[in-house]
Amino acid sequence: MSHPFVFMDLRTTDRDRSRRFYTALFGWTVTDLPAGPGTVPMFIATDGPWGGLTQLTENDSRRPQWIPYAPVRDLDRLVERAVELGATVARPRVDLPQGSVAVIDDPTGATLALWEPMPETRP
């Protein structure tokens, strides 16, 4: 089995504070990469970005947390199956240039992002 996660997202109430904490604690590199009209801070390894820092808004009731991204081949089918198994959809499908993502909460409340890369970027 290959690694079950392809990306990690740190949802935080203070991106700058989180950035300082993780770079000081582990020596991780964070680089601001272009995303739409602005930039997004991304954790970078020698082979490229492996995680990002997402700023929670005042309207977001979820707590700060790390969210793993699991790769899937048929996002809509997997979301449907997850719901059949007791999950709830925390964020419906969003299509991005690199692929599509949906976020579910499993039956115990643990959050997981399901990531379907664009066909030409699939491993």
Short synopsis of the structure:
The protein has 123 residues and is of the alpha+beta class. The chain has helices at 15-26, 75-84; strands spanning 7-12, 29-35, 38-45, 48-55, 65-71, 88-96, 99-105, 111-117.
Give your account of this protein's structure.
The chain has 123 residues and is α+β, with helices and mostly antiparallel strands. The chain has 2 domains: 1-59, 2,3-Dihydroxybiphenyl 1,2-Dioxygenase, domain 1 (Roll), CATH 3.10.180.10; 72-123, 2,3-Dihydroxybiphenyl 1,2-Dioxygenase, domain 1 (Roll), CATH 3.10.180.10. Helix content is 18%, strand content 48%. The chain contains 2 helices and 8 strands. It has helices at 15-26, 75-84, and strands at 7-12, 29-35, 38-45, 48-55, 65-71, 88-96, 99-105, 111-117. The chain has an 8-stranded mixed sheet with strand order 2-3-4-1-5-8-7-6. Strand 3 (38-45) and strand 4 (48-55) form a beta hairpin. It starts with 6 loop residues before the first strand and ends in a 6-residue tail after the last strand. The relative contact order is 0.19.
